[in-house]
Here is the input.
Amino acid sequence: MMRSWILPTVFVLGGSVVATGQILTGSPGTAALSVLVFVLLAAAHSPLVFPRSIGALEAQRRGAVDGRPVVFWRSGCTYCLRLRIRLGRDARRLHWVDIWRDPAGAAAVRAANEGNETVPTVVVAGRPHVNPDPAWVRAQLPQSP
Here is the structure.
Protein backbone atom coordinates (compact mmCIF):
# COMPACT_ATOMS: atom_id res chain seq x y z
CA MET A 1 0.00 0.00 0.00
CA MET A 2 2.79 2.42 0.84
CA ARG A 3 4.45 1.88 -2.54
CA SER A 4 1.57 3.65 -4.27
CA TRP A 5 2.38 6.85 -2.34
CA ILE A 6 6.13 6.97 -3.06
CA LEU A 7 5.93 9.01 -6.27
CA PRO A 8 3.40 11.55 -4.92
CA THR A 9 5.56 11.98 -1.81
CA VAL A 10 8.65 12.57 -3.97
CA PHE A 11 6.73 15.23 -5.91
CA VAL A 12 5.66 17.04 -2.73
CA LEU A 13 9.14 16.90 -1.20
CA GLY A 14 10.78 17.97 -4.47
CA GLY A 15 8.34 20.85 -4.78
CA SER A 16 9.13 21.92 -1.24
CA VAL A 17 12.86 21.96 -1.95
CA VAL A 18 12.37 23.92 -5.19
CA ALA A 19 10.04 26.42 -3.50
CA THR A 20 12.45 26.90 -0.58
CA GLY A 21 15.24 27.68 -3.02
CA GLN A 22 13.03 30.17 -4.85
CA ILE A 23 12.00 31.87 -1.60
CA LEU A 24 15.63 32.20 -0.55
CA THR A 25 16.45 33.88 -3.87
CA GLY A 26 13.59 36.36 -3.41
CA SER A 27 10.90 34.89 -5.67
CA PRO A 28 7.92 34.05 -3.44
CA GLY A 29 5.43 34.20 -6.33
CA THR A 30 7.42 31.69 -8.35
CA ALA A 31 7.75 29.55 -5.22
CA ALA A 32 3.97 29.49 -4.74
CA LEU A 33 3.47 28.53 -8.39
CA SER A 34 6.09 25.78 -8.09
CA VAL A 35 4.40 24.33 -5.01
CA LEU A 36 1.06 24.34 -6.82
CA VAL A 37 2.52 22.53 -9.85
CA PHE A 38 4.22 19.89 -7.72
CA VAL A 39 1.11 19.32 -5.60
CA LEU A 40 -0.99 18.88 -8.75
CA LEU A 41 1.57 16.39 -10.09
CA ALA A 42 1.46 14.52 -6.78
CA ALA A 43 -2.35 14.40 -6.85
CA ALA A 44 -2.41 13.21 -10.47
CA HIS A 45 -0.04 10.34 -9.69
CA SER A 46 -1.71 9.33 -6.45
CA PRO A 47 -4.34 6.62 -5.97
CA LEU A 48 -6.85 9.41 -5.26
CA VAL A 49 -7.63 10.10 -8.94
CA PHE A 50 -8.64 6.52 -9.60
CA PRO A 51 -11.93 4.92 -8.61
CA ARG A 52 -11.78 2.79 -5.47
CA SER A 53 -9.76 -0.36 -6.09
CA ILE A 54 -11.06 -3.79 -5.21
CA GLY A 55 -9.34 -7.15 -5.09
CA ALA A 56 -8.63 -9.06 -8.29
CA LEU A 57 -10.83 -12.01 -7.38
CA GLU A 58 -13.76 -9.75 -6.50
CA ALA A 59 -13.26 -7.68 -9.66
CA GLN A 60 -13.18 -10.79 -11.84
CA ARG A 61 -16.31 -12.11 -10.13
CA ARG A 62 -18.14 -8.81 -10.60
CA GLY A 63 -16.95 -8.52 -14.20
CA ALA A 64 -18.31 -11.98 -14.97
CA VAL A 65 -21.69 -10.98 -13.51
CA ASP A 66 -22.13 -7.49 -14.97
CA GLY A 67 -19.92 -7.71 -18.09
CA ARG A 68 -17.78 -4.72 -17.16
CA PRO A 69 -14.05 -4.75 -17.95
CA VAL A 70 -11.46 -5.12 -15.19
CA VAL A 71 -8.55 -2.68 -15.24
CA PHE A 72 -5.29 -3.64 -13.54
CA TRP A 73 -3.28 -0.50 -12.73
CA ARG A 74 -0.70 0.98 -10.37
CA SER A 75 -0.06 4.52 -9.21
CA GLY A 76 2.73 6.40 -10.94
CA CYS A 77 1.96 4.74 -14.28
CA THR A 78 1.50 7.45 -16.89
CA TYR A 79 -0.37 5.08 -19.21
CA CYS A 80 -2.81 4.24 -16.41
CA LEU A 81 -3.29 7.94 -15.72
CA ARG A 82 -3.88 8.58 -19.43
CA LEU A 83 -6.51 5.84 -19.53
CA ARG A 84 -8.21 7.15 -16.39
CA ILE A 85 -8.32 10.75 -17.60
CA ARG A 86 -9.49 9.89 -21.12
CA LEU A 87 -12.28 7.69 -19.77
CA GLY A 88 -13.62 10.54 -17.65
CA ARG A 89 -16.82 9.62 -15.82
CA ASP A 90 -16.96 6.27 -17.59
CA ALA A 91 -13.99 5.18 -15.45
CA ARG A 92 -16.43 4.56 -12.58
CA ARG A 93 -18.15 1.91 -14.68
CA LEU A 94 -15.02 -0.29 -14.71
CA HIS A 95 -13.62 -2.52 -11.99
CA TRP A 96 -10.17 -1.20 -10.94
CA VAL A 97 -7.49 -3.35 -9.30
CA ASP A 98 -4.33 -1.73 -7.93
CA ILE A 99 -1.63 -4.35 -8.44
CA TRP A 100 0.54 -2.78 -5.73
CA ARG A 101 -2.21 -3.33 -3.17
CA ASP A 102 -3.39 -6.74 -4.34
CA PRO A 103 -0.91 -9.61 -4.83
CA ALA A 104 -3.54 -11.63 -6.73
CA GLY A 105 -3.94 -8.70 -9.14
CA ALA A 106 -0.17 -8.53 -9.68
CA ALA A 107 -0.12 -12.29 -10.31
CA ALA A 108 -2.97 -11.99 -12.84
CA VAL A 109 -1.09 -9.27 -14.73
CA ARG A 110 2.14 -11.30 -14.74
CA ALA A 111 0.23 -14.33 -16.05
CA ALA A 112 -1.23 -12.24 -18.88
CA ASN A 113 2.05 -10.50 -19.78
CA GLU A 114 4.72 -13.21 -19.85
CA GLY A 115 5.84 -12.49 -16.29
CA ASN A 116 5.86 -8.69 -16.59
CA GLU A 117 3.71 -6.34 -14.53
CA THR A 118 2.70 -4.28 -17.57
CA VAL A 119 -0.18 -1.94 -16.84
CA PRO A 120 -2.78 -0.92 -17.66
CA THR A 121 -3.96 -4.39 -18.48
CA VAL A 122 -7.68 -4.43 -19.24
CA VAL A 123 -9.50 -7.76 -19.12
CA VAL A 124 -12.62 -7.93 -21.28
CA ALA A 125 -14.59 -11.18 -21.43
CA GLY A 126 -11.65 -13.07 -19.95
CA ARG A 127 -9.11 -11.78 -22.51
CA PRO A 128 -6.33 -9.38 -21.42
CA HIS A 129 -5.48 -6.29 -23.46
CA VAL A 130 -2.32 -4.35 -22.62
CA ASN A 131 -2.48 -0.56 -22.75
CA PRO A 132 -5.58 -0.41 -24.96
CA ASP A 133 -6.90 2.75 -26.51
CA PRO A 134 -9.31 4.51 -24.12
CA ALA A 135 -11.94 4.83 -26.86
CA TRP A 136 -11.80 1.05 -27.36
CA VAL A 137 -12.18 0.48 -23.61
CA ARG A 138 -15.20 2.82 -23.54
CA ALA A 139 -16.75 0.84 -26.42
CA GLN A 140 -16.41 -2.36 -24.36
CA LEU A 141 -18.64 -1.04 -21.58
CA PRO A 142 -22.08 -2.59 -21.45
CA GLN A 143 -24.84 -0.22 -22.50
CA SER A 144 -26.75 1.37 -19.64
CA PRO A 145 -30.46 0.54 -19.51
Summary: The first helix runs from residue 6 to 24. Residues 50-140 form a domain with the Glutaredoxin fold (CATH 3.40.30.10). Strands lie at 70-73, 95-98, 121-124, 127-130.
